[in-house]
Amino acid sequence: MLTERQSRILDIVVREHVDTAQPVGSQSITRKYRLGVSSATVRNEMAELEEQGFLGHPHTSAGRVPTEQGYRFYVEWLMGEEELPAEAQETIRHQFHQLEGGQEGWVHLGASILAQVVENAAVVTAPRTTACRLKHLELVSLNDTAALLVLVLDQARLKQQVVSLDAAATQEELSATAAKLNHPVEGLTAHEIAGVAERAAILTPVERQVLDIVESTMRAVDEGSADETYLEGIRHILAQPEFADSARVLELLDLLDQGNLARTIPLHALAQEGVTVIIGADNPRLGSASEAMRECSVILGSYGSQGVASGVIAVLGPMRMRYPRTISTVRYLANVMSDLLAQYYP
Amino acid sequence: MLTERQSRILDIVVREHVDTAQPVGSQSITRKYRLGVSSATVRNEMAELEEQGFLGHPHTSAGRVPTEQGYRFYVEWLMGEEELPAEAQETIRHQFHQLEGGQEGWVHLGASILAQVVENAAVVTAPRTTACRLKHLELVSLNDTAALLVLVLDQARLKQQVVSLDAAATQEELSATAAKLNHPVEGLTAHEIAGVAERAAILTPVERQVLDIVESTMRAVDEGSADETYLEGIRHILAQPEFADSARVLELLDLLDQGNLARTIPLHALAQEGVTVIIGADNPRLGSASEAMRECSVILGSYGSQGVASGVIAVLGPMRMRYPRTISTVRYLANVMSDLLAQYYP
DNA sequence: ATTAGCACTCTTGCCTTGAGAGTGCTAATC
DNA sequence: GATTAGCACTCTCAAGGCAAGAGTGCTAAT
Prior knowledge:
Two copies of one chain form a homodimer. In chain A, 46% of the residues lie in helices and 19% in strands. Chain A is an alpha+beta fold. In chain A, strands 3, 4, 8, 9, 10 and 11 form a six-stranded antiparallel β-sheet that branches. In chain A, strands 5-6-7 form a three-stranded antiparallel β-sheet. In chain A, strand 5 and strand 6 (146-153) form a beta hairpin. In chain A, helix 5 (86-97) runs antiparallel to helix 6. The longest helix of chain A is centred in the last third of the chain and has 22 residues, at 323-344. Chain A is elongated, with a radius of gyration of 27 Å. Chain A binds chain B through residues 100-104, 112, 135-136, 138, 140-143, 146, 148, 150, 152, 156, 158-163, 217, 220, 234-235, 238-239, 243-247, 249-250, 253-254, 257-258, 343-344, 346, and chain B through 100-104, 112, 135-136, 138, 140-143, 146, 148, 150, 152, 156, 158-163, 217, 220, 234-235, 238-239, 243-247, 249-250, 253-254, 257-258, 343-344, 346.
């Protein structure tokens, strides 16, 4: 479809445009790269590339700019697979290291790191897992009539819930209740716990109350964990020249901020093994609604293991993006986060 | 200092400018408000107000715009104390209600709600407290050589830490260790726990290891909790006409994002009882560094009780801001969050 | 097939021009 | 003495014109 030389020129146009954010002209190319042909030849080739839909004109007489199709060809055929520079790898590992054992906000941290390294906006979702299982429960007295229910779930997750006690109870009584309940429910899902609560006839009212709350809390975790996504690094998008007027950015933000995020980017939809690149409007989720999104690309990857517990990591930036660098970063981060997740998973 | 009529005019100029974001001229005022005087008189008064520093000219022949001093006078003397409309109160209470007992991200939620209600950026810090106290500790087996240490602290806070065990241990052994350790350290601070670990000679190596980790984790909480701040709603600032070009916003974001936030806004410095208003450059923390920040105002309030556990809530927006509404919202939210905090506090 | 040359197009910056809005001042008025 | 009408002046903003610069597209020569 494309001759050797056309590919070469397309490659140069893409790289140059990514660097400068300017349309690139035939003369500037021949000056900068020793192609062995004149600007006129390059012009002819460019016209041909435009004919075929890989390049475009912003105005009749400006340089050429890659089209969506051009970027796609570049990503698929021209761009080399780059390994992430050791220095960047170091940066990533180092920042995760500061977490030590306390995992707390590691997903959030992942998003921050990613945004920082690729200099674009980043999205990371918490691992979506199969129904969570209870490892341990504990009751801690807050005051006479309130206690804190602490649930330790798989993957080293913690949940808390304040319980108003129908009758006053001391810490000793609470501990005894917890100890008694722990054994029968260990390792079970919310659904299974509901079954246990039904079958066991010998429960005291307090025990029944606690089990009910355990179950509803775990259900909330099962439903809620899908929504837990972190978006970081919008400031990098602000710094891009194509988003110089903030109306554009505002549009993007409205599309992304919290609730809408999953609707805008098909996070779970296509994250298979490896890294997926969505360029411009070939995002399946986008109708005609999103002007600004049409000028963006999304790099998607996933971490964890598919059936067990996995999350999505994504980079969002203007279509004019450093694809090799971004893709290798996503791939590397996916590995790091997979390793990290494995540590918390039996 | 200012005559009745001058005050009236200043009031109108501020309100009109806040509404329209345009300089306001003498004619438009007399057309809209029945002042009983002609535009020429208004012009004279405006000239006088400018003389005294309350108003300014963007250009020689545009309408008047309030100066910092003008806004300050408005806030202090002209603006009425408005109670937050019941509808907004309802919105706030309603959203907090959805948390139920799981407090998890309530500080973050507070920031989101605030940003949404005042249509500006909002900052909320987690309550800064005196040294945290341990209420309960628990050990849960992850696998043969790793366990999850769960700490329940005061104010219903949970911390987790993965512990690599020097020797393999079953869940039963871990529970026994936890049970043994719980009693002597209950209610103590990190510092006091260090003392206990030193004095008690009869500890096994594992127990000593656990206590060490407990102490260091709690120290981390003591130090880290000051930094826990949430920033939400930058999109509202993007929507303001004074921040139409994103370079401005970028500057702001760099000033605010994460680490720098506390350096930019004197969060803990001046949050006494009640609500503090910082208008433009009278922010004590700002040197000459921050162009964009000079055009902003900050409304500060605090929640919780001063000596015990308190956090800061703040709104950041352009100087051209709906002060009455914003101030009453901050005040109201402070009350709601104080109530909420009291629930978790003995 | 490649290239040199040239006319053509389109942007960008700069200037001018006219309309519109608002001020500041002076002189007249209540 | 305060208020107001009137008017010249200033400044912005949008539109139009003009020259420079960059790049293209085409044609004819190599």
